[in-house]
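BUG: 3D viewer hangs when loading the predicted structure for this chain

Environment: internal workstation, default settings.
Expected: structure renders.
Actual: progress bar stalls at 90%.

Input used:
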Amino acid sequence: QRILQAFSEQGFVVIDLGEAFAEAVNQAYAATAAILEGLRGEKMKGKRRLNFDGGRYCGYGCDVAREWVQMRSGTAEKFTWPSGTEAHHVASLKTMHDECNKVAREILSKILKVLFVDEAERPSIESLLDAPGEEGEDAFG
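Structure tokens produced before the viewer hung:
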């Protein structure tokens, strides 16, 4: 209930996930920077992406104001990373994705328990999470 209360009063929630999570974030930022730095000599054309499962993409890129890597479950295995990408960078990104996925599931579980007191009416987390669907379907994640 504290999560929903913070959302309704402040519009956001601050959650301290500890030093290990903070270190994983730092490693993921360093991995993103290293991958994108390796692309500076290549013709990047703003981004590289993989059509992951129909209507959704994963990949990496940059524009004037930002640099990013968008991960999905299975990205590390399916995506062709740029030459020179070190295995530990991909592992750092995968770890960050997996840890964020765990946190998202835990928070969603808590919110659903408050919103749907009756367990029979409560949607399962799996029904709301990232899953391949028909073209145009919205899926969480």
